[in-house]
Amino acid sequence: MDEERVFLLDVDNTLFDNDTLQQALIAHLEEEHGEAARTRYWEIFTERWAKIGYADYLGALQLYREEDLHDPRILRMSSWMVDYPFADLLHPKALEVVSHLKRFGQVVILSDGDAVFQPRKITRSGLWEAAEGHVLIYIHKEEMTADIEAHYPASHYIVIDDKLKILSAMKAAWKDRVTTVFPRQGHYASDPAILSAYPPADLSMAHIADLLEMDLEQVLHSPRAGSSLPPGGAPTHPQRTGESHAG
User: Cα(245)–Cα(224) distance, rounded to whole angstroms?
Assistant: First the structure.
């Protein structure tokens, strides 16, 4: 393992299918509480996300409860959330990817989120154990590069994230000291407006599991901005900003 190399792995929609979790939550809210409750909770959740910058499921539930203190069923929603079988929503071979990357450097889970639900998700999905407790959770992780370096000093970082906004900010902060990797999973990774707003990552691929098929040492020693990795192959011709990354 290269002690001077640190892999920073995002969670939601990178290792974990968070889009499906949100769909399950919406369906459960409507089934248990009705369409009006589902709609109002999601309004609060969305407003809170825009205000604080991360998905605060339990905080939104608390605010919703304050609007409807007379419905005891709401109290069961928190149990449904924290006891969800999160391991079922890991992307295929996600844990294998974490284990595989340990051969090449230090692996750290790097996520945004609250101080209760996000750690619970990471723990119950198996990611906390897979990363051997090397977990950092911030509110805006792209603004925390100095703190990340304090915890995990390295000569080179590899940031793996489904959000080009995050990858672009990390590249601006660390420049040649970082290789940005873009798994094209989840709704952020297929949004044309987002794809056209930011430069391409150093490496992109359809699925996180594709990392198992690549010559990692070759890519890290000679990264090319915008290169795309087909499953089981070497990086192909760079993509231009704005080209489709759907996968």
Answer: 16
pLDDT tens digits, residue range 182-237?
999 999 898 999 999 999 999 999 999 999 998 888 877 764 555 555 444 444 43
Give the count of domains, the chain.
2
What's the DSSP call for residue 25?
A: H
What is the domain extent for residue 82? Answer: 19-86
- Global pTM value: 0.86
Residues in the chain: 247
**What would the 3-class secondary structure string for 197-227 be?**
HCCCCCEEECCHHHHHHCCHHHHHHCCCCCE
Nearest to 17 by CA among 139, 140, 121: 121
Residue 107's identity, in one-letter code, is V
CATH of the domain at 197: 3.40.50.1000
- Spatial separation of the C-alpha atoms in residues 61 and 171, rounded to whole Å: 35
Structure token pair of residue 127: 């990611």
Cα distance between the two ends of the chain: 31
Interatomic CA distance for residues 91 and 95, integer angstroms: 9
- State whether 41 and 100 are in the same domain: no
Same domain, 100 and 11: yes
DSSP structural state of residue 200: P
Strands 156-160 and 178-183: parallel
* C-alpha torsion 61→62→67→70, nearest 10: 90
**3-class DSSP state of 78:** helix
